[in-house]
Design brief:
By secondary structure, this protein is an alpha/beta fold. The protein is about 50% helix and about 20% strand. A 6-stranded parallel sheet has the order 4-3-1-2-9-10, with helices on both faces. A 4-stranded parallel sheet has the order 6-5-7-8, with helices on both faces. Helix 3 links the parallel strand 3 and strand 4. Helix 8 crosses helix 9. The longest helix has 19 residues. The protein is globular, with a radius of gyration of 18 Å. The chain starts with a strand and ends with a strand. The relative contact order is 0.19. The structure holds D-glutamic acid. The site of D-glutamic acid (DGL) has 17 residues, from helix 3.
């Protein structure tokens, strides 16, 4: 059986690549919902339905034992409901994991006291990062800034326009004494270096970048070690499947450029 990875679009290929590199022996199936990206400004109900359809495909057509919802927006809008309703009714022995809690655990492990969050409109408006952080610690200040222009830039090869936009987002953290910035969206690791450079320049101090492509692979390894009942069901033939819900030449090229090497990407019909 496979490990499934889901994202609203192609940005999830960044984290997928780092997961595959850290545990290459497993079989992976990736779905990007390019027919509906971006999710960031959509309603919770709509995001839930889109995510459920893709998760259902991963379980039924890709024989996934475990699915990681790599998309923060989808994790926030749908993870709990998928676990409590969909999984219970359809696949009670399989698992769906999200990315928000593992990211916040990293904040705690590093003893930060003041941090910034860059994320989509939906993620920031949900306030879920803040609520979940308060359950882990009451002493950490989280300052959230919506960064909605970054996903369309990444999905449309707009890198040359990114720097001034990133500078504007980072200015919202001035005078907050932040020590680190969480990249709370699958796509943002693409701009990790620019975000760090601009943050240190503007905020005049060392700023750590909490990037899910670095955190999540380690968390998955720990999860598999702690859950042999899941791990033993996973196939280890190193097979990969990359599917998207809408396909164009430009999506194929972006997938290549985001993943960093040629991949065979197919259109799936939901
Ligand atoms: N993948 C989404 C996330 O991690 C962002 C892209 C979108 O808006 O669909 O939040």
């Amino acid at each position: 059986m496979n490990i499934g990875l889901f994202d609203s679009g192609l940005g999830g290929l960044i984290i997928t690549k780092s997961i595959i590199e850290s545990i290459p022996e497993y079989n992976f199936s990736y779905i990007g919902d390019t027919a509906h990206v971006p999710y960031g400004s959509r309603s919770k109900e709509t995001i839930y339905n889109f995510t459920k359809n893709c998760v259902d495909y991963l379980f039924k057509n890709q024989n996934c034992e475990l699915i990681i919802i790599a998309c923060n927006t989808a994790s926030i809008a749908s993870l709990r409901r998928l676990q409590q309703e969909y999984l219970k009714e359809n696949f009670p022995n399989r698992r769906i994991l999200g990315v928000v809690i593992p990211t916040l655990e990293t904040v705690i492990e590093n003893n930060y006291k003041s941090i910034g969050l860059l994320a989509t409109n939906g993620t920031v408006a949900s306030n879920v990062f803040n609520q979940e952080l308060k359950k882990l610690s009451k002493d950490i200040q989280l300052y959230s800034t919506p960064a909605p222009l970054l996903v369309p830039l990444i999905e449309n090869n707009g890198d040359k326009y990114a720097r001034p936009i990133i500078q504007d987002y980072i200015k919202t953290f001035e005078n907050k004494n932040i020590e680190a910035i969480i990249l709370g969206c699958t796509h943002y690791p693409h701009y990790k270096n620019i975000i760090k450079t601009e943050a240190e320049k503007i905020l005049q101090r060392k700023i750590d970048i909490i990037s899910q492509d670095e955190i999540i692979p380690k968390k998955i390894i720990t999860y598999l070690q702690n859950h042999p009942e899941i791990e033993t069901n996973l196939s280890k033939d190193g097979k990969r499947f990359f599917g998207i819900t809408d396909i164009t030449e430009s999506y194929k090229q972006q997938a290549y450029s985001i993943f960093g090497e040629p991949i065979k990407i197919e259109k799936i019909n939901l």
